Each structure stands twice: as structure tokens, then as C-alpha cells.
Amino acid sequence: MKKTVAVIGLGYLGATTAVALSLVGHRVIGIDPDEKKVASLRAGRVPFYEPGLDEALGEALATKELEFVTAHDESSHEVDVFLLCVGTPQSRTGLGADLQYLEASIDGLAPYLRAEAVVVGKSTVPVGTAAYLKQRLSSLVDFAPNFAWNPEFLREGTALKDTLTPDRLVIGTSDSYSEQVLRELYQPLTENGVPLVSVDIPTSELVKVAANSFLATKISFINAMAEIAENVGADAVALAEAIGYDERIGNKFLRTGIGFGGGCLPKDIRAFQARANELGLTESVSFLAQVEDINLRRRTRVVDIAVEELGDLAGRRVTVLGAAFKPETDDIRDSPAMAVAELLWAAGAEITMHDPKAGDNVRRMYPQLAVEDRIADAVAGADLVVVATEWRDYGLADSAELGKLVANKLVIDGRNTLPYRQWQQNGWKVIALGRNLDSALVGV
Ligand code: UGA
After folding, report:
1. Is residue 206 situated within a structural domain?
2. 346 in the same domain as 272
């Protein structure tokens, strides 16, 4: 059944959700106070890089069922479902989540809320946040508001696909009316076979942080194995393949390298620990501190290898290929690639970076680092090349040609993405995190 939906907050989550819901037949009003963002979306331009989203936005705008505004207006009185999609960044004062944007969203929508409408949170939040926000909203209206939670599992780089055909939908409700409205909202997806799990609100809040904690743990697990493998001459990539065949383990999210970053996993595991602490349950998730420690050690490991190979890094020229926290995005928030570049810079190296999409973000946020738009220009004169994001371009790069440009044919593959035999044949010394490239069997 067609709904009128207000999507509040037009970042990754909100912009993708707005486009996806209008494509499946709902009327959508996207709301964000950022005038530039709204103007860009109205003009059919997504204000960040996300494959396929520009085209989908154009398609959605053409239906005339999608509009973008900077503030609520009269049409918010017609809204059936308010979706809260604002950010919950790490607070400035601690590990916990900063809820100010959610609070502002609640305060902003309250004057427009009809008793029949449902307010639904999608942002990632500490468990208990929905109850707090519902209470805040209740104090601003003179009826009992319908309140629900509906965590989102989209990944950057595949955001639209993840929203239209997610592995599952999770809805957290405390009344059957809200549950029904959400089932109707998602009917276009569920009738195509997407499973919907209906739970209570605290479970729905927990599902999201539990999923991200599990994913982070999986990555740190294989990276812990990489630390051991490096020490004993074993190969963590082969190990991941071997354990991954066990269906109970699975082969996804076992890619070893410089670890996880981005706007979600790191902050979510920190916020989870902070919340557990508040609940007096510190020990329940204390392992997440180790998950983070392992993750950070992989970054410093790159610097240690660089020093082992080159000695003092002062004045040495290091090229870091990749800045985004993963391929197919221009997002450099908490990016392992940027952390490695900064650590090498702090050790005295002169850094030149390259990224197919994130170069301008690096220029804006890291003026101390040089950025080149072509791989060849970035590696020219390098004493060391570090691959820090697994963009396809790097795997496809011509190692023979690049070898002619560098001062020293040394590459550290921080993402296990290079066809290393070909690089070796072209005279490069290749060091790959967690790998034993001397093993005759590796890569066969
Ligand atoms: C993550 C989750 O995967 C989504 O399900 C979730 O909705 C989202 O956070 C969120 O909370 O909004 P995302 O941050 O886009 O999505 O990125 P991931 O694909 O999870 O990758 C996170 C990091 O882990 C990247 O830096 C990636 O390079 C790294 N990674 C991933 C590894 O180091 N090894 C792997 O095997 C997989």
C-alpha cells in the first residue's frame, strides 16, 4: 500500500533510502537542513560517490514522487512514516554515540506529527535509545505517538542493492498498528522474497550493533591469525580459504589486511562498549576492545615492515595507493589507508597518495599529504609503495611500467590484492600482510 514517507537526514543512509522507497512506489519527501545537499539531490546529483545511485536518483525524480526540502513544511502533515536517518557519530567526549541529531529530528517533526503516523528510527544507536526518544516525543505531542525501530544494514559501495534486496529486514515495534504499517511499507520488498524479522524494539536496536560487532570480530579474528602466520611462516589467506569452506564459518569477511574502518564498524564497536559499561555489563563485550586493538596493530605493522626494509623513514618517499576505507566509495572516515599514511608521515616519510575517487577528500582533510590523480605520477621516485585499498585499478596496474618509475621496487600489499607473482617476475619485492609468499604452494 502506497505510503507518504519523510526521510529525515540525507547522508548515505537517508539518500539511498529515499531513492529506494520512491522506486518501489512510495511518495517520499527527503529532508535535510544542508542546502547544498538538497540542491544537489534536487538536480539529480548524489553528493557522494556511490555506484548506480545517480542513475537511480534520476529515475526516482522522474516519477515526481520524490522531492527534497531543507525543512518540514505543510506536506509533513500528510506523512504516514517518518524515517530517522541522521548520523550518530562518536561523541566528542567519549566512546559513546552522539544523539544530538536524533534529538533534533524528533523535536523538528513533533509539530507535524499526526496520531496515525509512525516514527521509525533507522540510525545505529545504543540499545535503549528508542525508548528515550519515544519519551521525548511523547512530551512534545498530546497523544501517544507510534514509535518503531528499523535498523539498516546497507554497505557503502553496494548501498542501493542492499536497500532494495537486503538479506533481511528487521522491524522493532511495541504495538501491532506500527508493525502493520511497516509491513505495508516494505511489502514491495517482502513480496519479492526478502525475509522480514519482526521483534521488540530493544532487540531491533541490538541486532544492528551485534551484526557490526560480529563482522568486526570476524575481520580481527583473521587478522589475529595473520599475526601468528607472519611469525611462523604460514599463510593467512590460504588459512582463510581453508576454514571458510566450513559452512559454519563461511568464507566472507575473512579478508586479511590492514583491517576495518569507515563510518560504521569502528564507531559502533566503541559505542557498544560504552553502552555495556553504562549497563554494568562491561565484561560482556570486553572482547571488542581486543578486536579494536588487533585492528589498530595491523596498521602499525605496515610501518614496522617499512622500517625493517628501509631503516629510518625520515625523508624516504612512500606512495600510498588507496585512501578510501574500502573500494567503490570516496569515504575516508576512519580509513585504515589514511591511518597508515599518517603513521608513515609521522615516522618522517614523504607521502604521496592516490585514490580513484577519494583524492579530493584527502586534499581537503590532509593538506600535509601530496595527492596525485594518476597512479604513475603517484609512484614516481618512490622508495616504497603501499597498497592500502583494494581498488581494481591497483590489481590491474602494469607492474613492469611502474617498476621503471620508482627508486626502489618494494611494495607492501596491505589488502592482498596484487597479482604478486607477476609483480615478483617484474623485479618487485612484494610483502603481503599475513602471507608467506615464499611458499611454493601459495597462489597455485
Ligand atoms: C558496514 C556493514 O557491513 C553494513 O552491514 C552496515 O549496514 C554498515 O556498516 C553500517 O553500519 O551502516 P560498511 O561500513 O559500508 O558496512 O563497510 P564494510 O563492507 O562492512 O567494510 C568495513 C571495513 O572492513 C572496510 O574497511 C573493509 O575494507 C574492511 N574489511 C571487510 C576487511 O578488512 N576484511 C573483510 O574481509 C571485509
Report:
1. no
2. yes
CATH at 428: 3.40.50.720
pLDDT tens-place string over residues 374-430: 999 999 999 999 999 999 999 999 999 999 999 999 999 999 999 999 999 999 999
Total domain count, the chain: 2
Report if residue 14 sits inside a domain.
Answer: yes
Which residue is closest in CA terms to ligand 1's atom 7?
Answer: 153
Q: Is 85 annotated as catalytic? A: no
User: Hey, which of 212, 268, 333 would you mutate to test ligand 1's pocket, going by the most ligand atoms within 8 Å of its Cβ?
Assistant: 212
How far, in Å, are 322, 328, 362, 378, 394 from residue 355 at the CA level? Answer: 5, 10, 9, 10, 10
Q: Is the CB of 179 inside a 6 Å radius of any atom of ligand 1?
A: no
387 close to 413: Cβ distance less than 8 angstroms: yes
Nearest CA to ligand 1 atom 29: 260
- CA-nearest residue for atom 20, ligand 1, is 155
Q: Among positive and negative, which fits the CA dihedral 372, 374, 378, 384? A: positive
- Residues 404 and 382 sit within 8 Å (Cβ to Cβ): no
162 in the same domain as 67: yes
* Structure confidence by residue, pLDDT tens digits, 69-121: 999 999 899 999 999 999 998 888 888 889 999 999 999 999 999 999 999 99
Q: Is 101 in the same domain as 169?
A: yes
Rounded to two decimals, the pTM is 0.94
Q: Which atom of ligand 1 has the smallest separation from the CA of 152?
A: 7
For 5-17, how does the pLDDT look when each residue is reduced to its tens digit (9 = 90+)?
Answer: 999 999 999 999 9
406 CB within 6 A, ligand 1: no
CB atoms within 10 A of CB 277: 17
- Catalytically annotated residue among 29, 106, 119, 264: 264
Examine residue 313 and state whether it is found in any structural domain, yes or no.
Answer: yes
